[in-house]
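Shift notes (night). Ran DUF4230 domain-containing protein while the centrifuge was going.
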Amino acid sequence: MIKIARLLLWVIIISAIAAGAYYMINRSKEPFHISRGHVNDIETMTRLCAIDIYNEAPVLDTINNKVIFAVQKQSGSISFDLQNIHTENSGDTLFVTLPKEIVEIKESTEPDSWQVIDTKSLALFIKDRMSLTEENAVKSKLRGRAIRQLYENGTVARARAEAATNLRSFLENIYRHPVIVIDPTPNGTLSH
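Came back to this:
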């Protein structure tokens, strides 16, 4: 009786393994579908970003007879619009002129990106506290100063050099011909 039970158990196990193998081999393969892609924004694809910027700028400024001392966290980038790129072929060489840089500096979106440490009135009988309009005017001047500083300390020049190198490498890999990138303004074009 025990031998028959063991034999029956082995038959059931072998049958289960055979049924599982048959199911795995003959299982119908369901085709999968890939939906069509949609282009939402092509502008971001045509920009070459050379440098991302993060800065904590101290602020000491005067507006409407009030002095403010604050700290602003700034973020931004120096990029190049490749839609405005100028190319010219000469023999098997592609000449590319690097376009004008796009310098973007904004107040960071991090918490406490604008911290007013102290304000003081220079005139009698005027509140020390600044209005939002006055603070925004200070922030606007700070943005202009930060952009000028990027030009003066060589950050824009470094970004242009890196962009020229990256663009040359990128285009040589695509076209498989020599590429020369011409930078008409290696120190940048300060227009702010």
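The CA atoms of residues 33 and 76 lie 40 Å apart. The beta strands are 47-63, 66-81, 86-90, 93-97, 101-107, 114-121, 179-182.
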